Amino acid sequence: MSEGRLFEPDVLITEQFVTARRRRSALSSEKRLMLAVLENALDDYQKHVASADRVGRALFAEAAAWIARTTNDDVFSFEHISETLEINPSYFRRGVAAWHKRLLDAPRLTAEAATAESAQLVRATG
Fold first, then answer.
1. 8 Å CB contact between 78 and 66
2. Are 90 and 68 in contact (CB under 8 A)?
3. N or C: where does the chain have the smaller number of CB atoms within 10 Å of the terminal CB?
4. Nearest to 45 by CA among 93, 106, 109
């Protein structure tokens, strides 16, 4: 880094990005396909978690069931894909569950904050 410059590029972030990109391109075709299956399931889960339409609910249910299934009897099972990609399946599931819980708690937190705000306003106005 040169002195006197306020803004410097973050070299570490760039290196991490390049390394991650290299690692992804170094994956075999089978692993890239498995990663795409995993990404698609997570995408369906997150996009359709609150779907009101039948198709969206079905996509969510299918993704949730696939992620929850603990059997390793299929090449494209969640367990097999996780193991092949060196992802801890239970850690992944906990992360998805935590994300889902935060999403479900968000409206309640907003309502609680609104209630606290209105109570504060009532006290302030007497």
1. yes
2. no
3. C
4. 93
